[in-house]
Amino acid sequence: MSEPHPSIVPVIQEAEFGCVAKLRHLKVDHGLVTALVERWRPETHIFHFSIGECTITLEDVSLQLALCVDGPPIIGQTMLIGRRCVIPY
Q: Is 2 among the domain residues?
């Protein structure tokens, strides 16, 4: 995966997503991913386990990736280029 285009670096920094942009080499536990896929119910957006139901929240993601989720959302025009959604800056 290549570096982000210089024109979107300020947007990434403003959104405090710099650490996410640097996530490039993650070890993936394929067994865990397979188990989660098998237990996911798309109609309810919930994982179904033997001990009960579980879903992933914005707070879960923010804690795992050390993202700031306080403050107003950063919104603007987007463009779809191929299969990627980009924010023109």
A: no
pTM of structure: 0.46
Backbone angles phi, psi at 37, to 5 degrees: -60, -40
Q: CA–CA separation, 12 vs 16, rounded Å?
A: 6
Question: Which structural domain, as residue segments, surrounds residue 37?
Answer: 9-86
Q: How many domains does the chain have?
A: 1
Per-residue buried b or exposed e for 69-89, using 16+ beta carbons within 10 Å of the residue's own CB: eeeeeeeeeeeeeeeeeeeee
37 falls within a domain: yes
Model confidence over 14-61: pLDDT tens digits? 777 777 767 666 678 899 989 999 999 989 889 999 999 999 888 888
